[in-house]
Amino acid sequence: MKEALNRRSLLKAAGISGAAAIMPPALSALAQGPAAGGKWRMRLSTSSIHFMQLSIEQACERIAKLGFEAIDIWSAHEGCPHLDDVAKRLGPEGLKELLAKHKLKLFAFSVYRGGYERYAELLGKSGGGVAVRGSSGPCKPEELTARMRKFLDGLKPLAELAEKHNSYLAIENHGNALLCSQDSFKAFVDINTSPRLGIALAPYHVQTQKASVPEAIRICGKQLFFFYAWQHYRGAEQLPGVGPTDMTPWIRALADVRYRGYVNPFMHGHPEADVMAANLAKSRDYLKECHKKASGGI
Fold first, then answer.
1. Residue 70: which CATH number?
2. Does pTM surpass 0.85?
3. Which of 106, 99, 102, 101 is nearest to 74 (CA)?
4. Which of 78, 88, 73 shows the shortest CA–CA distance to 123?
């Protein structure tokens, strides 16, 4: 057991040192404060799919006016038009101009539809960031290590592509999937040695298993590349501060692992834009309150 723990620590250290020198703004040390010993600063982004009925220009305007620092742009999941529109109409220079106009940073492309390869060059030329995708089908507990190793081996070409385009690939946990449980998170971080690969943690799916979100955050550690502030409730109650989950322990855990990305309030469902904006404003304020409460222990 001690050897396994030492191995995990060494692998995590390798991931940290490998990523530190090449990390784009999406995962930069800006999230860690002015110095290694400084207080962790929470940064907020949100996803364009929340405004999928609007153009990408209008979505960026809404997100910026709400005070978010960065954006996660979605491909065609549930018909979201934004990323394909950027690819076909704006291109990397047009996207950079649009984001600069609204003083937004590019955090991520969510590529559940289309895959990373399709958007890798665009992401790199737009400044680099995180590409979020799923894992693979579930497996029996006794098969977990072998299946995770095979899955990560299969991602090596994508990790090389991410390095070429100064980007990162974050694998999201999901119900009924390979990456779904605390044990699967442990297997991922133990086996993964690429600084280009990490985890996109969706607490919604952690909660469905009645597992601890702070524990999941701490297991992921420096391999946590994307964090959804997202709870297991229906409708708008999936959002922070709208649903009942106390996310202060989540924020404290993010600070403990010195999470380098943005905290991304999220929900599935597509209310009218003004309703969505009002709920995201509640989430923004709520997360800031959580950070304030947690900061005593940060």
1. 3.20.20.150
2. yes
3. 106
4. 73
- The domain tally of the chain equals 1
**pLDDT above 70 covers what percent of the chain?**
87
Average model confidence (pLDDT) across the chain: 91
Provide the pLDDT for residue 38. 78
Write the single-letter amino acid at 174: H
C-alpha span between 17 and 120 (Å, rounded): 24
DSSP state of 44: B
Which range of residues forms the domain containing residue 259? 2-297
Residue whose token pair is 């919604």: 204
The alpha carbon of residue 227 and the mean position of all alpha carbons in its chain are separated, in whole angstroms, by: 4
Residue range 29-51, pLDDT digits in tens:
434 443 345 789 999 999 999 99
Concatenated DSSP letters of 137-196: ----GGGHHHHHHHHHHHTHHHHHHHHHTT-EEEEEP-TTSSS-SHHHHHHHHHH---TT
What is the per-residue pLDDT for 24? 62
Task: At 185, list the tokens.
Answer: 């998170």
The rounded distance, in Å, linking the Cα atoms of 20 and 29 is 8
The length of the chain in residues reads: 298
Helix axes 182-191, 213-220, angle to 10 degrees: 10
